[in-house]
Amino acid sequence: PLEGGCGTQPFGACWLKRQGRPEIPTGVSDETNPWISGSMAKPADVRGERGAHKKFHVLVTTNANIYQAWQVRVMHYWYERMKERCEEADPDGCQMGGFTRILHDKADALVDEIPTCVVDRLDNEMGFVVLSRPNAFKQYFEKCGDIEEDYVLMAEPDHLYLRPLDNLMNGRTAAAFPFFYINPKGFPELIRRFAGEHLTDREIEDM
């Protein structure tokens, strides 16, 4: 390393080091990888595959509290507007399909406005309201999962659609947003508990 560090980075912080996900570089202050200050990665091809055969269905989970209700109402409104724009621009190739709210709560007034599947909420969310989401998806496919699209986009009620959206999958590789605070390599024992004891440290890092 340079005597004075790397630009604004402290001394010892400018070594190049392998990262499993270079597109989301680990910060220099991260205890699991303290020797990195950035990354050089080839931009991902996010063009996706064209054609209506890649049409997707939006699934959004929410409960019935007022905060999430107004969020999902705005979200649904703008999704439908962007879908209209998409279909006008490309009637045969638009990939925006249906929209379903998975409500893990009692039915509310929005069931008459937004396509909704009502499922059971967990008895104990342990103070973490989104804990009901995985079980809500499981119940959805058991109870309401008869949709015409072959692909789904799992969304949250604070996602706002400002332009038409394509299916961003490449081949059979799913598209996902890299949440920086979800760091599986920091919890290898927990990952192996649910994903398999056979996983190596390198495989966990590459998740």
TrEMBL record:
Coiled-coil residue spans: none
Keyword check for Oxidoreductase: no
Compartment annotation: Membrane
Pfam families from the UniProt entry: HPAT (PF23452)
One Gene Ontology term, aspect cellular component: membrane
Membrane topology according to the record: Single-pass membrane protein
Superkingdom per UniProt: Eukaryota
The keyword Transmembrane belongs to this UniProt entry's keyword annotation: yes
Molecular function GO labels: glycosyltransferase activity
Ranges where the Hydroxyproline O-arabinosyltransferase-like domain occurs: 56-201
InterPro entries the UniProt entry points to: HPAT-like (IPR056508), HPAT/SRGT1-like (IPR044845)
Keywords associated with the record: Glycosyltransferase, Membrane, Transferase, Transmembrane, Transmembrane helix
Name of this protein: Hydroxyproline O-arabinosyltransferase-like domain-containing protein
Organism field: Micromonas pusilla (Picoplanktonic green alga)
